[in-house]
Design brief:
The chain folds into two domains: 2-186 and 369-384, Glycogen Phosphorylase B (Rossmann fold), CATH 3.40.50.2000; 198-367, 3-Layer(aba) Sandwich (Rossmann fold), CATH 3.40.50. The protein has 15 helices and 14 strands. Helix 12 links the parallel strand 12 (286-289) and strand 13. The chain has helices at residues 17-29, 64-67, 75-89, 105-115, 134-137, 140-153, 163-173, 198-204, 223-231, 249-259, 274-283, 298-305, 336-348, 350-367, 370-384, and strands at residues 2-6, 34-40, 49-52, 55-60, 96-100, 118-123, 157-160, 180-182, 210-215, 238-243, 265-268, 286-289, 310-313, 328-331. Helix 1 (17-29) crosses helix 15.
């Protein structure tokens, strides 16, 4: 069996959970099937063709002469459309084409129509559930909605990363439930494990104890609710914000303004290498995921794997990861008072928090190891092509 995986994110260009997902899933799947990655070529920092372990990686250029002349808010959508054509100009000889996110949905649709392949999608989020993206995409948002619907309605199988995501698919697109299979995101527990390194704290000027946030700078991630909660925190602690690429440059200014007069806030405005990120998770009193919308949230697995309890919004797929008052605390989304109370509980009960952290790692290993996720995905592929496992 050969599978072509279509993704916007792949090392070295990863800015969110999708890239982490694709990298780890394909690494496991390549142990027993042929896998190729088709992704975007960005600048001169990556090669157009290479082999990473057992995975073939092909990178394609978009039509820069067209994109450069495109109105700013339309660029992401025009990029996606030109990339879809570039990818399909290179003939597919795969049994299955498997795409991730709306950005690759049109490329997957073309592949099915042009080459007669079976089409699979993993749904990490849904565009209609993120209306705030219209601010950054403008009317290009309407095209992203069209791209996602077109790709998903053409699929032979849709993998939802959580049961909550499956419910959203049924509600938003009315997809046949028989075409949807729930397979969670995973974690490499051999890499994501407790590591203590005080030099990392010195490097970024972080004082103990601290609360950690890691995520893309997006309204979806609820970072401003966390900042509001921190403003009224009665116990002394540091807040560490590690943010990736912003959805909109305006959000950068909003964040700068919101923390301008706050003490004990450390803002690391870049994606960190996991050699720095793992110790930051490990030494935190708690990891906070205050998302407004979160179909799953790989960051929660990363935190639990390092034995750090998680305070997270009771929304989307998060309750499928966090066991309330056993591996962390679930709070109402957008409720800064509830979030403040949960943070103060963790700070006031360090022994209980450590116990939750250890239970969290055990929970992750037993349910979310990438070897388990890859096996479930392989079985789903076999069903699609009509073969028994």
């Amino acid at each position: 069996m050969k599978v072509s995986m279509l993704t916007l994110e792949y090392p070295p260009h990863i800015y969110g959970g999708v890239g982490v997902h694709v990298y780890n899933l394909t690494r496991q799947l390549s142990k027993f099937i042929n896998i190729e990655i088709r992704t975007i070529k960005i600048g001169d920092s990556t090669r157009e063709f290479e082999q990473v372990d057992n995975v073939i990686v092909k990178r394609y250029k978009t039509w820069t002469e067209v994109i450069d002349k495109t109105y700013g808010k339309f660029k992401p959508v025009f990029n996606a459309l030109s990339l879809a054509l570039a990818i399909n100009a290179d003939k597919f000889d795969s049994d299955i084409v498997h795409f991730h996110t709306w950005y690759m949905a049109v490329a997957g649709f073309y592949a099915k129509k042009l080459y007669g392949v079976k089409l699979v999608a993993t749904v990490h989020s849904l565009e209609p559930k993120r209306p705030w993206k219209r601010e950054s995409l403008g009317e290009g948002y309407s095209l992203s909605l069209w791209a996602e619907r077109t790709g998903l309605e053409s699929c032979d199988l849709i993998i939802a990363v959580s049961n909550a995501m499956k419910r959203d698919l049924l509600e938003v697109y009315g997809i046949d439930s028989g075409k949807i299979e729930v397979i969670h995101n995973g974690i490499d527990e051999s890499v994501w494990k407790p590591v203590y390194n005080l030099e990392i704290l010195k490097k970024y000027g972080i004082k103990l104890p601290y609360i950690l946030f890691v995520g893309r700078l997006s309204k979806q991630k609820g970072i401003f609710t966390l900042i509001d909660a921190f403003k009224t925190l009665s116990q002394k602690a540091c807040l560490v914000l590690v943010t990736g690429k912003p959805d909109d440059k305006i959000l950068l200014k909003e964040l700068q303004y919101s923390i301008k007069h706050l003490k004990n806030v450390v803002w690391i405005n870049k994606i960190l290498d996991r050699n720095e990120l793992i110790p930051l998770y490990t030494m935190a009193e708690a990891f906070v995921c205050p998302s407004i919308y979160e179909p799953f949230g790989i960051v929660n697995l990363e935190a639990l794997a390092t034995e750090t309890p998680v305070i997270a919004s009771n929304t989307g797929g998060i309750p499928e990861i966090i066991i309330d008052h056993k591996t962390g605390i679930l709070v109402e989304p957008s409720n800064s008072e509830a979030l403040r109370s949960a943070i103060e509980y963790i700070l006031a009960n360090p022994e209980e928090a450590r116990k939750w952290g250890k239970l969290g790692r055990q929970h992750v290993i037993e349910n979310f190891a990438w070897s388990i996720i890859a096996e479930k995905t392989y079985k789903a592929y076999m069903k699609v092509i009509g073969e028994d496992c």
